[in-house]
Automatic annotation (TrEMBL):
Keywords, sorted A to Z: Cobalamin, Cobalt, Isomerase, Metal-binding
Gene3D superfamilies reported for this sequence: Cobalamin-binding domain
SUPFAM superfamilies from the UniProt entry: Cobalamin (vitamin B12)-binding domain
Cofactors demanded by this protein: adenosylcob(III)alamin
A GO molecular-function descriptor: isomerase activity
The B12-binding domain, residue ranges: 10-141
Full protein name: Unannotated protein
Length: 143
């Protein structure tokens, strides 16, 4: 049975491809899935910097940030993003990570502060449901 989640407003999510990774078909499919699930998606495109991603999240009043990393540098990039997010006092914005990620790395990314991790092969409906749950929980926790 699939759990449904009510989200009070239209969630806004910033998606980006950080680093030098040039393959963006997957994140574009994710963007369409999230749009079909009722979210507003701001896709920044390829080769985005951590600073640029967080600046866009702030400017767009994003409810979440999602990054896709297929080049094997997901630990370094996500760690840098989460550290910079804390420095900017943006911890209330959840960060999702997708890509070529092992089970062990997924656990470590969650331990570091990623809201959720979506390895290659994650069912799109499950991804959208899990993103909605995290955003809904965030909205309930905000003052």
């Amino acid at each position: 049975m699939i759990k449904t989640v009510q989200v009070p407003s239209v969630p806004r999510i910033v998606l980006a491809k950080p680093g030098l990774d040039g393959h963006d078909r997957g994140i574009k499919v994710v963007a369409m899935t999230l749009r079909d699930a009722g979210m507003e998606v701001i896709y920044l495109g390829l080769r985005q910097s951590v600073e640029g991603i967080l600046l866009a999240a702030e400017q767009e009043n994003a409810d979440a940030v999602g990054i896709s990393v297929l080049s094997g540098v997901h630990m370094a990039i996500t760690s840098k993003l989460l550290i910079r997010r804390a420095e900017l006092k943006m911890e209330s914005i959840p960060v999702f990570v997708g890509g070529t990620i092992s089970r062990a790395d997924a656990s470590e990314l969650r331990r570091l502060g990623a809201a959720d991790v979506f390895p290659v092969g994650t069912h799109l409906e499950d991804l959208a449901r899990r993103v909605k749950i995290v955003i809904s929980d965030r909205e309930l926790a905000l003052p």
